[in-house]
Amino acid sequence: MDSRLPSKKGLAPGVVYCTDTYPPQVNGVSVVTALAVAGLRARGWRVAVIAPRYPRNPPWRVKQFVNDFGNPDLRVDLPSAAFPPYPDIRLAAPAYWRIARTVEEFRPDLVHCATEFMIGRLGQIAARRAGLPLVSSYHTDFSRYTEAYGAPWLKSTVSGYIARFHGRALRTYTPSQMARADLLALGLRDVEVWGRTVDTGIFSPSRCDPMLRRLNGWEGKFVVLHVGRLAAEKGVERILEAFRIARGLLPAGSLHLVIAGGGPEEPALRRAAPADVTFPGVLDHGRELPQLYASADAFVLTSLTETLGLVVLEAMASGLPVIATPAGGVADHLRNEVNGLAYPAGDVTGMAHAIVRLCMNRKLRDDLARGARRTAEGLDWEGELDRLDASYREVCVAHAGRAHRRGTAARPVTPVPHSA
Predict the structure, then answer these.
(1) What is the radius of gyration, based on Cα positions, of the chain?
(2) Residues 6+ apart with CB under 8 A from 200
């Protein structure tokens, strides 16, 4: 297909991202979205981001990071308020007029709704009324969250909303084959697996810092790391339980657990944690977090709801064997006895035995570490951004063709060549 796309009076191609989470908030969705913004700008796109406004001085329970990636050409911050049960989450005001005005004035070629909440939904309405092609992202399996929060009867309702939301898009991007299968089962047609990658330059075994281990008293200990949001659906309490079991099977003082991240479950997890557990909070994604990954010995994950599991890829890039259940997006990358150790869902004892096994078997640990790094090196971020660039152009050209056939062609435009 011709990759040239119509532009507005010679402007470079443009996209407006409508997202309910963006840096400085830290989570997998905000990080991947910011990396996409930076990559598209490097490929000649104009990018606007409409996101919630975040407090400059957040409450002590709200952990944010600041990074220099993902700075768009235009950022529109909508008024927002903290969600009381989970202060990290911002609930944006229904400021449709600001979204519509941004779309009108920025003159994009398409709108990408990256989340299914207020800003994403209003972005869909603005795109439809402006006659612009619309794409979406499916990052989170909220229907499975209903079980973690004690409301399984809502699962079908949530699934129905997800189907309707993404059914309005010309193309939906999701980071795993399993998530794609879930969307196809809901009746969606054009679902592209995109975004399962990691920056192997930032996350690398070379970031290991012996001084970090020394200052924290980890020398001579086997350090197990978990990184992620500390929320009910992540099941981090099971990691604490497995750690207790593993600690009882190993010589005293030989094991240490680090749980990095923030969220509503952090206070309860801190209270329940045994000795030899560290909670460093939310860390800078470009410096502190890569250093922590590379300075640990193994990575453990217990979540079953990941559509990607970005932290798994970051750990693998850092040369860490991964202990996890091959569920959701994790199943696309975890290979038992190759780059990590798999255990059955919910099997705390199995998780504990995997920790003990890695701690006691240095050769196995080294072999799996090399396998983990090889897995990450096969996931090229630049290639993935090239694919997104091409995919956007394909959607825009196809939309223009349909509009022309309907007799509703857009304003006169001049072509813009595909950027390298």
Answers:
(1) 22
(2) 317, 373, 376, 377, 379, 381
**CA 234 from chain center: how many Å?**
14
CA dist., res. 388 & res. 288, Å (int): 29
User: Order of strands across the sheet with 222-227?
Assistant: 277-281, 255-260, 222-227, 298-300, 322-324, 340-342
DSSP-based three-state secondary structure for 225: strand
Spatial separation of the C-alpha atoms in residues 189 and 166, rounded to whole Å: 10
The tokens describing 333, both together, are 């990358």
| Domains in the chain: ranges and CATH | 5-197+380-416 (3.40.50.2000), 205-377 (3.40.50.2000)
In Å, what is the CA distance from 114 to each residue of 22, 120, 143, 160?
A: 10, 6, 17, 18
Q: What is the pLDDT of residues 310-338, one digit of tens each?
A: 899 999 999 999 999 998 889 999 999 99
How many angstroms separate the CA atoms of 127 and 133, rounded? 7
Q: pTM, whole model, 2 decimals? A: 0.82
Q: Using alpha carbons only, what angle is made at residue 251 by residues 245 and 252, rounded to the nearest 5 degrees?
A: 85
Neighbours of 201 (CB within 10 A): 11
* Residue type (1 letter), 83: F
C-alpha pair distances (Å), 182 with each of 29, 162, 176, 285: 18, 11, 10, 30
- Copy the structure tokens of residue 212: 């970090």
Low-confidence ranges of the chain (pLDDT < 70): 1-10, 57-69, 143-150, 403-420
